[in-house]
Design goal:
This protein is of the alpha/beta class. Helices cover about 50% and strands about 10% of the residues. Helix 8 packs parallel to helix 11 (about 220-240), helix 14 packs across helix 16 (about 315-325) and helix 14 packs antiparallel against helix 19 (about 350-370). The model is unreliable at about 15-30 and about 370-440 (pLDDT under 50).
Length: about 500
């Protein structure tokens, strides 16, 4: 079966992925966290909860032993060293500019005495060796802003974290002016972080010395920052005279546990980002333009999955919105939507497909909205059997979608109907044009007036209640001022 699936995929990968995408939309998460029980039941180490935290000063980068790991034997030795430690700091370097899901390129680890940088691209299949120290509840793993690091470890290496301390969460509990690692480095270690390589392409090999130096800084000082933040959390409880001095420390540990319990799931097409773009542009776009915007967002997501490219590399957000506004059906019109930006070759390849999809969407919209004004003679069909009508049939207004502001009337004597009607199908040249919900004008007026009167009554009652309270306060003020005058006169 596996060989057959692989053969089908090799023959027609695009069609095969379409099926997978279609099935994935209906399937919920099919697995739970494999260390859910350990996360629920493990007990924090005495060193973590100690109120007396030793001040272990860090060494300089030059004086700290460093090892770049790109061989299996070196990785196995690292796992043994980490199993002996009581805590170690971790950070990841990730690349997502030219990949749909992204890829972890580098792992930095620091103990109290050593720094390590692991080439996870070269050792991708062997990274499971580090699962033992990462899942050991007796060893504290220190991260900064671990929300995505935890998920990337699961996705790329199958590594799950048990017993973690997130210094990013500690900054939030302490109410720091910034939550970034650069702020902590400057505030605690007086080190100015070089953010030149923050968005660098970490896939390049061999890595330049400057990039390795930048990567080491992310974890080299992190254990000292961890100790300092714990002391500050305990000091904050003392300053506020709280009996349980570990209350803020426990808060950070609880938040860190919640992050480590997260499960990586592949991104959906209609995610938060998708709905944010639509909501931000809904007011300025017409209905058909919104449909084109949704079409472009779905198309961009699909191509990004098939080609393993970043959605923003294929087509940036502002270009997608420009295409939705212009609704181009020609190449020249589509080119103008980029406003001087280069059209990437991948998008260039799919231009006919985009223009055809937009043309189809416009054609369908025109078929719906291009309804002529109804002829005077209208044939009414009964929709469901009901009681016989009582009283005359009122005059009805119909709205034409081509001219939303223009109404036309149908006189009551032009409609022969033996039953009360709420839905009318009208025909022009024996073709069904539209199905319309009908209400009398008098009923609408009555409903509107009734709603306004109820609102007015509420306002009047609230005003009367407020005025009564005001009068009471004024009486109290007068009586208190009168008593004060009498007392002064007596004295």
């Amino acid at each position: 079966d596996i060989l057959n699936i692989q053969r089908e995929y090799n023959e027609n990968p695009e069609q095969y992925r379409k099926v997978l995408l279609k099935d994935a939309k209906k399937s919920p998460a099919f697995y739970t966290h494999p260390y859910a029980e350990e996360l629920k039941e493990f007990v924090y180490t005495p060193e973590q909860l100690s109120l007396e935290i030793p001040d272990i000063k860090y060494k300089s980068l030059e004086d700290t032993p460093f090892q770049f790991i790109d061989k299996t034997e070196q990785l196995e030795e690292l796992a043994k060293e980490l199993n002996k430690a009581t805590e170690f700091a971790v950070d990841l370097e990730h690349h997502a500019h030219r990949s749909f899901l992204g890829i972890t390129c580098l792992m930095q680890i620091s103990t109290r005495t050593n720094d390590y940088v692991v080439d996870v691209i070269a050792l991708r299949k062997q990274m499971h060796v580090l699962q033992e120290p990462f899942a050991n509840p007796g060893i504290v793993k220190v991260f900064h802003g671990a929300d995505w690091d935890v998920k990337w470890l699961q996705r790329d290496f199958g590594i799950y974290v048990v017993n973690m301390f997130d210094t990013g969460q500690a900054t939030r509990v302490l109410g720091c002016s910034s939550y970034s690692l650069a702020y902590l480095l400057k505030d605690i270690c007086n080190v100015t972080a070089n953010k030149q390589y923050q968005l660098a392409d970490w896939r390049v090999r061999p890595l330049p010395e400057e990039m390795i130096h930048y990567a080491r800084e992310d974890t080299h000082y992190l254990l000292y920052i961890y100790d300092t933040l714990r002391r500050r959390l305990i000091s904050m409880a003392k300053m506020r005279s709280i009996k349980d001095l570990r209350v803020y420390l426990n808060m950070v540990l609880r938040k860190s546990k919640e992050i480590s319990a997260a499960i990586y799931l592949k991104p959906e097409t209609k995610d938060f980002y998708y709905y944010t773009i639509i909501s931000h542009n809904a007011a300025s776009l017409r209905k058909i333009q919104l449909r084109v915007l949704k079409l472009m967002l779905k198309w961009r997501d699909y191509i990004a999955r098939i080609e393993d490219e970043s959605i923003n590399y294929i087509c940036p957000k502002d270009v997608v919105v420009n295409v939705a506004r212009a609704m181009p059906t020609k190449y020249s019109d589509l080119r103008e939507c980029f406003k001087g930006k280069n059209m990437v070759p991948l998008l260039e390849k799919h231009v006919p497909e985009i223009l055809a999809a937009i043309s189809t969407k416009l054609q369908k919209h025109n078929e719906v909205v291009s309804l002529p004004i109804a002829e005077p003679m209208v044939i009414a069909e009964k929709i469901a059997p009901r009681e016989p009508a009582r009283g005359p049939v009122p005059e009805v207004k119909f709205c034409n979608e081509d001219n939303p502001g223009k109404l036309f009337h149908i006189a009551a004597n032009q409609i022969k109907l033996n039953e009360p009607w709420s839905i009318l199908k009208y025909y022009n040249q024996d073709e069904v044009k539209e199905e319309v919900n009908i209400e009398t004008i008098e009923e609408k007026k009555v409903a509107t007036i009734s709603k306004k009167s109820k609102t007015l009554n509420k306002v009047q009652k609230a005003t009367q209640k407020h005025s009564r309270k005001l009068e009471k306060l004024q009486r109290l003020a007068r009586s208190s001022s009168g008593a004060g005058k009498k007392k002064a006169k007596k004295d």
